[in-house]
């Protein structure tokens, strides 16, 4: 066997092996790209992204290393209490996000930044959400599921849901566990006819008016006290002057004009 034949006999299998490894890397996610406690599977439907399932994994926070080609992310039934701003920023293929049955309490302005153009379904049901930033859902076109949360119906929530005109269904499932209006507690959010933002403004105006009236009353009280105190001091000084012995007249001192008259 010539050296050339020997080299070819060894190089061809190596090339085939390398080609197979490259195809495996391109077609199947490696174990290092899948977050700990999750399973990753390539979707059979276009665009052939990843389905990442982290359900029932006892997660306390959202994994920061979710693969960028993820199109389905299941984070339900964990112990996640916080959705950091821009945590999903790099997931531009994400279509479905399931955060149900967790312990999320509030949502900031940038919680879903980066998902505006791709997200189709966002499930936030069965959490502990009481409040959201008014811009939390502003740019999302997804169908948002927010039922079974202890909502506090206030101005921010009214603005957040009011900016989801394309997603009227979300507001129909919001019940006010507490509210700025006591008679609305336990009622559906859509039953709140009042403008909660103006209500808050009126409450602030009343508080400012009461505060200004209090200061004005304090000033008036101080002025009255000051005047009375000066009057008392003047009276005492006058009584003191009256109590002084009068100066005796000299024999050759002329009488007062008023006396002569």
UniProtKB/TrEMBL annotation:
It comes from the Eukaryota. Pfam families: LRR_1, LRR_8. Its main location: membrane. It is a single-pass membrane protein. The chain crosses the membrane at residues 206-227. GO terms for biological process: signal transduction. InterPro entries: Leu-rich_rpt (IPR001611), Leu-rich_rpt_typical-subtyp (IPR003591), LRR_dom_sf (IPR032675), LRRNT (IPR000372). It is found in: Membrane. SUPFAM superfamilies: L domain-like (SSF52058). Residues 33-72 form the LRRNT domain. Coiled coil: none annotated. GO terms for molecular function: signaling receptor activity. GO terms for cellular component: plasma membrane. Keywords: Glycoprotein, Leucine-rich repeat, Membrane, Repeat, Signal, Transmembrane, Transmembrane helix. SMART domains: LRR_TYP, LRRNT. Gene3D superfamilies: Ribonuclease Inhibitor (3.80.10.10). Residues 1-27 form the signal peptide. Belongs to the LRRC3 family. This is LRRNT domain-containing protein.
């Amino acid at each position: 066997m010539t050296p050339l034949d020997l080299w070819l006999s060894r190089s061809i299998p190596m090339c085939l092996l390398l080609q197979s490894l490259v195809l495996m890397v391109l077609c199947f996610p490696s174990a290092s790209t899948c977050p700990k406690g999750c399973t990753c599977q390539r979707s059979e439907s276009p665009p052939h992204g990843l389905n990442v399932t982290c359900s029932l994994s006892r997660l306390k926070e959202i994994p920061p290393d979710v693969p960028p080609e993820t199109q389905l992310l299941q984070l339900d039934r964990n112990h996640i209490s916080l959705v950091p701003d821009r945590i999903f920023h790099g997931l531009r293929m994400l279509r479905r996000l399931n955060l149900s049955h967790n312990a999320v309490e509030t949502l900031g302005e940038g919680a879903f930044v980066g998902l505006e153009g791709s997200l189709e379904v966002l499930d936030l049901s069965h959490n502990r959400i009481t409040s959201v930033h008014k811009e939390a859902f502003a740019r999302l076109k997804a169908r948002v599921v927010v039922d079974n949360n202890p909502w506090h119906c206030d101005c921010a929530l009214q603005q957040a849901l009011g900016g989801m005109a394309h997603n009227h269904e979300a507001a129909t499932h919001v019940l006010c566990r507490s509210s700025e209006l006591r008679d609305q507690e336990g009622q559906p959010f859509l039953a709140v006819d009042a403008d909660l933002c103006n209500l808050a403004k009126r409450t602030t105006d009343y508080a400012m008016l009461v505060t200004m009236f209090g200061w004005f009353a304090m000033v008036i009280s101080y002025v009255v006290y000051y005047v009375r105190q000066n009057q008392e001091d003047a009276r005492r000084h006058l009584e003191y002057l009256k109590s002084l012995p009068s100066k005796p007249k000299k024999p050759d001192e002329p009488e007062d004009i008023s006396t002569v008259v």
